[in-house]
Amino acid sequence: MLKLIPFVVIAFSCIARLSASDLLLVEDGHARAEIVVAAERPRMTTLAALEMRHFVQKLSGAKLPIVTTPSKTDAIKIYIGRSPATDRLGIADEGLKYGAYRIASGPNWLVLLGHDEDFDHTKMPWPLKRNAVPEEEAKWLQATAGQTDAAWGYPFNSGFKSLWSPGDFKEQMTARYGDDFSALWSKRPGSPEGFWEHDLGGSSNAVYALLRSWGVRWYMPGEVGEVVPTKKTLVVQPINKTIRPDYAMRDWNWYNFSGFAYDDVIWARRLGMNTGHDLVGPLKGPHGMVHVMSAPAMKEKHTDYYALIGGKRDIDHRRGGTPCFTAPGLEKETVQFLRYLFDTYDVPSVDVWPCDGLQLCQCEKCQGKNASDLVWGFADRVARQIHSSHPTKRVTCGAYTSYRAPPPSIDKLSPNLAVWISNCGRPLMLDDVHWKGYQELMNGWRARVAPGNILRLENNRYHIFGDGPIGYPVIHPRSAARDLKAMKGISLGDTGEQSQAQSKWRTPAIEHITLYVESQFLWNADQDVDTLLDEYCRLFYGPAAKAMYDAIHFAEHNLAVKDQSRNGGRANPMNVPLTVSLRLREKLEQAQQLAGDTIYGRRIAAIQADLKSKEQLIADDQQQRQALADARAKAPVARAHAGDDLSTATKYILKDNTTGEKSDVTTQFRVGWAGEAIVFEVVCSEPRMKQLQVAQNVFDGDNIAISLETPLHSYYHLEINPDGIVADGNPGPDWQSLAEVKTERGDDFWRVRVRIPVVTADEASSDPRHRIGGAKPTAEAPWYFNVGRYRVVDLDKPELQAFSPTKRGWHQPARFGKLLAE
Ligand SMILES: [Zn+2]
C-alpha cells in the first residue's frame, strides 16, 4: 500500500510533539481547518468536499466548514479541487489524467486536487430517461439521414442508465451529508439532478488517499464494509506528491448504474474506480459493430453486408444480424459511421467489435477463413482508413470466443487499433499451465498491436446465476493480482461484467474480496498481495483475522482448474469436489466462532449466509449421484470388439441428438479394444459431399466427436474433421490424445478411423496431459462414452446426432452410453 500512503501522517495525542510545519486539522475533536471549494465547480468537487467532511467527522467528531471564500481566521485551508486559490498557488490539474491526483501543503494550507469534470450529455442525442429514448433516437435518425443511403442504429440508447438520479436524490443525500447539501449541490441549468457515472472525480481520489492514511478503509459497500478508527486529532506532515494510477481504465460494468443504491455507487468511487470515459468515451463497446447493421433500412438496402449462413443472409441474429467481413460495402459503411461519430461528437474512440454469438459467413470470399483473420482483418482495414483521416482517434475491437487468438495472417495491426482481450479465466491465473497459455496469448497480441492499445475485459459473473445460495465461491484476489502485476505497462486497464442482479451486487460479502484487491492493484500493481490481504483480514475480521486469511487462501487455491468444459469457452472454477466445499464451510465456522457476536462476526456470517449450508451441499450431492446412477442404469450399451480388425465388429447407429429418433442421413460406428489402444471407425453417409464444411478449428465445420470417461478420469473429448484434424481436451484444453487418425471421402460418405492410445493408472498420473488413462472396460468397471456427429454442410441449422442423445451439446457426461469390451 506504500504508493497509496506516500506520506506519513501521525495522529498526536500530545500537541507538544507537533512540529512547526505540521498541519493540525483537528485538535482533540475540535475543527482547526476549513474546506475551501470554488464557487463554480464540477459536481465531483462538491462530492469530494462532502466526503472529506463526512469522514473527518466520523474519525474525530469535528465538523469542518465547507466555504467558497476562505475565512480571515487562522483556520487551515483545505483546498479541494481547482479554485482561484489553487491557481494562485500554482497547483493545477493539468496532466492529472485518468483520476491522478496531487496532495500538496504549505504554511496553513493543504491542497487535494485532481481533474474534476462534469460529463456533458448535451453534446450527444443522449436520453435522460428510458421514456426519452424514442425522441432522442428520432433526433439521431434525422441528424444521420444524409450520412448513409440507408440508416444507422442508435448507439446512445442505454445512456440514461449511467445517470444516478433517484426521485429522492436530495433527501438521501441530505440525510447522509447534512442540511446544507442542497445549497452546496448547485445544479447547472439544463443538467439533471444527481450525477453521471462518467463524471470525472480526480480530487476525490486525493481525499480518499488522505483518509486512508488515517486508517479509513472501504472494503465492502455500506457501513458494515467500512473501517473508521477513532482519531480525535488529525495532523498532516508537509507533503508534495502526485499519484498516478498504474491503469488508466478501472471499470466495473454496471448493467444499470442508475438503479444501484448509493452505498454501491460511492463504494466504487472510494476505491478509485472509473468508467474510462476520458480514455475511450461512451462508445467503447463491446459489440459496437451492431449499430452499423441494426437499422431495418440497412437490412433492406444492403443484404450483402450480412453473412451468408445456410444459403440465406442473416439479418436477424440478435436484432443486428451477422456481418460478412469481406463485403466491400460494409467496410465503407463502417468507416463512414465512425467518421461521422468522430466529427460530430468528438469521442476519443469507437468500437467495431461484432455481435455476440458470432457465426462465420459462408460466402465464397469468407469460406474456410480463420475467424480471427476475418474479424481482425476487417477491424484493421477500417482502423487504417480512420487513421488516415483522424490520426488521433482510436478504434477498438474484441479478442473474444472464436477470434480471441491473434490473426495468423496479420503481422502488425493499424497503430490506432486497440484490442479488448476478453475472458481469459482470471480466477485460474495461479495455475501454471493456464498462466502459460495466457502469456502466450498476450505475447501474440503484443507482437501485433501498437504499444498502449491493449485493454482487458474480464467478466466476473460466476455468482450471477440463480438467486439462491452458492455452492462454492469464486474468490480470486491472488489470481487477479498476478494478472494485474504482469500486465502493468502493457494493458490500459480493466472492464467487465460483475455478478449483479436487479441493480444489486450479488453476494457482496463474497465478491468484495476480489473486487477490493483488483481496485488496489489497478492503482498500484507493484504492491504485495499478501501484505494487502493480511491488512484486510486484520482490520476487517479482528480476532478471526488469521482464520479468515486461511479460509480465503483455501477458497482460491482449490478452485477447479482441470475439470473444465470447453462448452461455450468457459471454465467452471466452482466445480470442486464435495469434500473441498465442506472443508471451506468448516474454516468459515471456525472463524465465526473466533469473531463471536461482533461486527467482525457479522461480516463472516454474511459470507456464510450467501453459501449453501453443509446439509444442503450433502443433499445436493446425493441427489446428483442418484440422478447419475438412474441415468446410467438406462444408458445404451456398446461392446468393443476384441482387437484392431473391426470388419466383423457390431455396427451402432447414431440417433438425432434432440429427438432420439432415427436420422435420415445415417452415421454408424464400430469400436474395438486393442489392449494399448481403443479404436473407432465412424462412417458418415453424406448425400451432399460437395457442401461438406471443413473448418480449421474443427468445431465450426462438419466433424465427429468422441467422449470417453474411464474409471480414472471424468472424461476425455476429441473432435475430428473430414481432413483428419483433431481438436482434443480432457475436456478442457492442454491435453492431447496422441491419436492416429485416418480419413477417407467417397461419393456419398466420409469415414474416420481413429486409434487412441490407452495407458495404465501409473503412467496416466505421471503424464496426465497425454493419452487416455484406463484399463479394459468390464462389467465391474465399465467406461462411459459417446460418439456424436456435427453435420453442417449447407443446413440452416447444423444437425447433431449421437449414440446416446444428450438433448444439448456433447459435454453431458450424465447422458453418456456404457462401453464394455468383449
Ligand atoms: Zn462473407
Automatic annotation (TrEMBL):
InterPro entries, alphabetized: DUF4838
Superkingdom assignment: Bacteria
Pfam family, one: DUF4838
PANTHER family: ALPHA GLUCURONIDASE N-TERMINAL DOMAIN-CONTAINING PROTEIN, COAGULATION FACTOR 5/8 TYPE, C-TERMINAL
Protein name as it appears in the record: Alpha glucuronidase N-terminal domain-containing protein
Source species: Anatilimnocola aggregata
